[in-house]
Amino acid sequence: MLVEHVQFLPEAERLAVHLGSQVLTARPDSGRVLCLGFNGLSLLDCDAPRDEPLRVDFAGGALGFRQRAGFRRDELLARAVGVKGSPLPRVLDATAGLGRDAFMLASLGCEVTLCERHPVVHALLADGLLRAAEQGLAALSRMRLCAEDAAVHVLDPLSMGAYDVIVLDPMFPERSKSALVKKPMRLFHALVGADEDAGLLLETALSRALRRVVVKRPLHAEHLAGRAPTLDYRGKAVRFDVYVTKT
Question: Which of 16, 139, 151, 216 is 20 to 30 A from residue 112's alpha carbon, by CA?
């Protein structure tokens, strides 16, 4: 845990204890390191010091621009989830990652619970949510972060009947460097690795979602666990497979 300034030392020490790491005051020569500083929490690749760090930012960058322009209900994810009419679906983002899909759905009015089991990604996401809340983004009032594995969370009796829709965006082994163009996302992929239990998570989600399960896939990828969806929504690069569970 790298500290950018002494004023961040208490928070860095607390986070380091939680993550089982140590606090550093000088940047390492190699490897990956979390950095706490004036722009919040970020993940640095010390082997590529010129590369952009990985951070969660809901107010800035492309995501912030889209939010200010206004997300639309006719976008692929919104259509796949069923964001229309009232009441809007209660959503579990079972593989929250950097929270972008969850933020979009919350911006459209859905109540969204985000599950992220990787401790470093969870820390990045928690930091991004905190900074967005401080900036007054209304969608944050509809987002709740959970550190549990989604498969454990949905099987909890307290979660029974809690979610109309469960969204999965599993990570799979990178086939080539061209598959993930942006370097921060390559860093994310290297950190998280593949979700080897994605098929099991799909089966669990299908048993708990009241209306549907939505799986985000590369456009030409095989169906998750070989299970054909009820329908799908296709874009230029991604596909949303929809499994209807409501009978």
Answer: 16
Q: Where are the beta strands (DSSP E) in 80-221?
A: 90-93, 111-115, 143-146, 165-168, 212-218
Q: What pTM did the predictor assign? A: 0.91
Please say if the pLDDT value at position 5 is more than 70.
yes
Residue 120's contacts (CB-CB under 8 Å, 6 or more residues apart) are 19, 34, 43, 191
Encoded tokens for 196: 């080897």
Residues in the chain: 247
Kindly state the helix (H) or strand (E) to which residue 2 belongs, with its residue range. strand 2-3
Each residue's pLDDT tens digit, 166-199: 999 998 765 555 544 567 788 888 888 888 899 9
CA 81, distance to chain mean position in Å, is 16
Mean pLDDT for all residues in the chain: 91
Strand 2-3 relative to strand 32-37, pairing = parallel
Residue in 3, 62, 70, 58 with CA at minimum distance from that of residue 35: 3
Q: What b/e sequence results for 98-126 when a residue is b if at least 16 CB atoms lie within 10 Å of its CB, and e otherwise?
A: bbbbbbbbbbbbbbbbbbbbbebbbbbbb
- Ordered by where they begin, the domains of the chain are 2-45 (no CATH), 61-244 (3.40.50.150)
